[in-house]
Amino acid sequence: MASGTKRLPRAVREQQMLDAAVTAFSANGFADTSMDAIAAEAKISKPMLYLYYGSKDELFSACVARESGRFMEAVSSGFDLSMRQRDQARTLVREFLRYVYENSDSWRVLYRVAVGSASFAHIVTESRNGVTAMITDLIRRGTTTEGASDVDFELTAVALVGAGEAVADRVSDGGIDLERATDLLLSITWRGLRGVNVHDDDH
User: Is 45 left (phi over 0), alpha (psi -120 to 50) or beta?
Assistant: First the structure.
């Protein structure tokens, strides 16, 4: 089995190392996770781990970049500008929480471990800004109030993303049912959208 493992393509090996690192960082945080522990989780030698990633910082940065990309891909999945606005909002909420529910280790690495480090927080900020931009555009296109500004749209989106992250954190701990969380967050989201007089396509 060992000889077969050595013949794994580099790209596959890298993903296995990142998978192991995400598991370890999620469980223990950045400071308390050693390269020895990650190598053991990945079932490889520590020298091989260092061959691929020269330091723990480099490895963690690669983890955050990969998980951030996966998060953005999941949240934007199925988002279609031709859909009714309420359906677009439901798609964003559903995919957001589904990702967290199915990838709790990834969420904890991004929004608990990385966000607390000045060296890596900017990657998480980029993901958050991407989601905020989607919601801002959703609000802007559906707003019927004359005189509403881009600042109004963006601040509303920021508030909704903040609420979404708080609910998602509970979902990642298994403290709330996924469907219930989706319905609750959609309700909050839609009230926020109606707060700037977004048009309700159902009426």
Answer: beta
Q: Which of 9-13, 153-157, 170-174 has the highest mean pLDDT?
A: 9-13
Find out whether 160 and 186 touch, Cβ atoms under 8 Å. Answer: no
Q: Which residue has the higher pLDDT, 82 or 2?
A: 82
Find, among 115, 121, 108, 111, the residue nearest to 25 by Cα.
Answer: 108
Could you tell me the CA-to-CA distances from 177 to 23, 101, 174 in Å, in that order?
A: 23, 9, 7
Give the separation between CA 78 and CA 134, rounded to whole angstroms: 13
DSSP states along 6-40: HTS-HHHHHHHHHHHHHHHHHHHTTTT--HHHHHH
Q: Are 194 and 89 in contact (CB under 8 A)?
A: no
pTM of the model: 0.79
CA-CA distance, 64 to 107, in Å (whole number)?
10
Q: Which one-letter amino acid corresponds to residue 28?
A: N
pLDDT tens across 157-174, in order? 888 888 888 888 888 888
